[in-house]
Structures are given as structure tokens and as C-alpha cells.
Amino acid sequence: MSFRFFSPALFIITLLAHQATFGQVKAPPAGQALAVPTFHCLGLYWSPPGGALDRAVEVRYRVKDAATWSEGLSMRYNPIEGTEEDLTDYRGSIVHLQPGTIYEVALKLAGTETSTRLVASTWSERLPEGEVVRVPSGDAPLVITEGGKPDAWKVYDGAGATIDVKHRHNNCITVNASYVILRGFTLKGAGATTNLLKKSVGAIDVESGHDVVIEGCDISDWGRFNPKTGFGFNGDSAVLCRDPKVTRIVVQRCRLHHPSQDTNNWYEPKASTHPAGPQAISFFDTEGNHVIRYNECVSDPEHMFNDPIGGGANGSYRGAPGADSDIYGNFVTHAWDDGLEVEGGGRNVRVWDNYVSGAANMIANAATSIGPLYIWGNVTGRCQVTPTQAGYGFLKMGNAGGVKWQTGHQYIFHNTVFSEDGALPTGGLGGSRIVTHTITRNNILQVRAATNRSASSAEPNVDNDFDYDLFNGQVPETHEKHGVRGVPAYVTDAGMNAQTKTGRFQLAPGSPGAGTAQPLPNFTPAFTGKAPDMGAHQQGESPLIYGVASQAR
Description:
Helix content: under 10%
Protein name: Right handed beta helix domain-containing protein
Number of helices: 0
CATH architecture of one domain: 3 Solenoid
Keywords: Signal
Largest sheet: 12 strands, parallel
Strand content: 25-35%
Organism: Brevifollis gellanilyticus
Distance between the termini: 31 Å
């Protein structure tokens, strides 16, 4: 078997044969553990005998045969009854791993001699290519029904080609195949003007299959006008997946920009009208194990997104993006609702190192029914619900369809709510919404006014631990014992360069929150001094780069 190597701008996925069954997770045999990989993470599943609420599972990991072990974040006991999967009692993730690497993982039930070990490989960023199909420019959709094999993926090469269907067809590309790479296409004009059905359409619609890579594509001018609302049809997307069996879709280093239609904001035509319109990437209740990374989802004030990256269903055990999925390194703007929508099951879903600006809710996580959901290292900018009104929250939180869906654990670490032109959110962690089963550490939770809530104090809140955060708003009385009340002071020239997608968000020396954070195993980035800084960007660290030029930290 030969491998072709690609430049960093065109990372590809390889899945080993034994990984091909990963998707919807079934519990391993009693006492055994399971790991579900992506490029940089392993999702862990284990049901040891003797598991209990007061007993965590300790996690260690190392590169196979290495001399030393590293500590991972412990897993909490959280069996979920009534789901479609036979879930394990303990679930969690190891993050910031190297691609294409074999790891040993050691799990131990705290306070007991019960333990287990497993070996797992992360996805590699190289792929054995099979047939390469050179696709010419045209005005008719490309219909893909032939895929490759695990050791010979079929490449549809669109470099230099433009498919512009001129709004005469719903899709530019449809996929009903597996082991497929779509590379380098310019796509325009998806969404037939004669189609007035509510069912959403996609410029690229993965209708069925698994193991599909969409990379280096430029997609614009998609979507349809809805004459009933005067805006776009809801959910019309640049990349769309809605088959419940679809799994392992990678969308990377794509520019998904300027849809053909606009989205209403929450006050159009009157308050409160939920935004409805185009999206960039939409996953609806799929099996998951997807990766969405290094993309740019941008537009302008006349062509706003609903949720640039999102899907559904929120009150469910599935939702978006799907279990064992990663969203990182993306540059996301121009949303009248949620910048990133990660709602539903949230089972081993990881969201890190994204930049989100120009949204009503920066990251939506209502609800997390299974978990754990990890949100860390993200930076958020302008928060707005209309061009002139303050937005809602850094994290939406709360529930969708009732508190019965709020049974999953959430970990919120090292995020920065940055004051971009003073357009701060009015809420930090949920505002006045219900927040449950959430641990926060080392976040900068600056809100618009000291009377606003940096963290929810809703009476039904349960099982939360807010601490070591920098905040200027209200927080629950029994929380933030090691937190810092104050306003962050940033280094000179802090902020985002929208042209280069490069930002500096380090705290200035002596700022509140500088050198006062709690080191977190496997999550806190490298730092200087006795303790790390609160927030996403450590002092002395290089500027952060998002979008197509980004790399994993």
C-alpha cells in the first residue's frame, strides 16, 4: 500500500479497518472499555463493576510504549436511561493528541483496584488514494454514487472547476457513496427558485454513506427565497447531512460564505420571531463522529446566517453535530441566532479554539442530554441580537423541551469573552436560564454590565461547580470561591484582524486573572510562571490563527 502526502492545507483522513464500525456506539462487553477516535481526540466508554456517583474514573494515557504517562480529566459516573444506545456508565475524552498515533489508555475506578487498559489509534492525516476523477466546470449537479474502499478512497478533484447551477437545481453535488474525497470545488447557485418546499437543500448534500472528506472548497450563493417570510428558507446549507446513518464526515479548510438570501433577526418582523434562513454547515440527527475544522463561515449584514454551524434536534439524544464529533479552528461570523450550535445529545462532543463573532448567542448548548460536552479555548467577539441591540449569551445553556433533556455533563474551560467594540453579551453562562451538571474553570466571563449575570443563578440549577473564572457580573453566592471579580486588561493591540483571521487575546501582565488560573490536566495550554492565565490565550503564546490557515495547537 502506498501513501501520497499532502500539504498542510489539504489534510486528509485515514481510517484503519478496525475503525470502520465506529459511529453509533454500543456498550462494550462487561468490564471492557472502548475508545472512539478522531484526529486529535479519543472518546472513552467504560462500565466497571462498582461504579457510583462518588467514584470517578481516573484516566492516564501515553504514546504506545513511551516511558511516561500523562494525566487525563477524570470521568464522572452518569448512566443515561431511555436512550437509543446501550450507554456506558462512564464517558469522557482525551484531547490534544497527535494524529495517526497509537496510544495506550489506563482507566482506574477511584478508591478500588478495578482497572483496565486499552490501545487505540487516532486518525491519520494521510490517505491511500485510489481512482482520481477530474471534474470539469459545468452548470449541472455532480451526482456521486460511486465511492472507494478503505485502502483506496475515490477522489473527485474539482481544482480549477466551478459548478454553478444558477438556482435551477437544489444541489451542486450530491453524495450517496462512501470513502469519497471532494477536493477544491467552487460551488455556486444551489437552491432551485421553483422549489418552495420547506425541506432544506444543500450545495453539497451527503444524502447517504460514510467516510466522506470535503476539503478546500469555496461555496457561495446558495439558498432559496421564501415568499411567505421575505427571507431565506430555513436550513438551506452549504454542506448538509440529515440521514440518521451518516457518519464520519470531515469538512475542513473550506470557505462557506455569502449565501444568496438573508435571515431575519429576533425582531423581524416583530419580537420575538425566531431567526430562519441559510446556514453554512448543518448536521441533523446523524450518527456522528464528524470533524468540522479550519473553515471560514462569513457573510455580510444583508446575507446573515441563522446558525453558521448547527443542526438539530435540540431536545433529543442526538442533535448536532452528533456524538464523538469535533469542531475546532473555525472562523465564524454573521449569525442572527447561534454562532455554533452544539445541542442535543452532546456525547463526547468537543468544541475548541474557534473564533465566533456577530451572533445573538455565541455558542448554543441547550440542551446536553447525554454528554460530556467539552467547550474550551474559544474566543468570542461581537454579541448582538440586532445591529444596535446587545446579544444574549456567551453560552446559551438551558433546555429545549424541558429539563428532562438536561442530564449530560458539561466542561467549560479557558474561554475568552472578548469585548469587541463594547458589544458584550448580557449573559455569560446561561444568563437567567437553567444550568445543570456543569464544571467551569479559567474562563473570562465579561458581560455588558455588572448587573448582568456572568453565571446563572436560576433556582432550579443543580450539580454545578463554577470556579477560577474572571467575571464582572453576578454569580451564584456559593460559587467562584477562587474566582476573580474584575475587568480584564489585555495586551496592546489585542483583538482580531478580520483580514488575516489572526488574533491576540492575551491578558496584560498584572491584569485581573493573569497567573491565577488552575492548571487542568490535558486542557490547559503551555504557560510560563507559577500558574496559567484565565482565558483562551496565554501570555507569551504566538498569535492565534483561525480558518483555512489554522493549525491545531
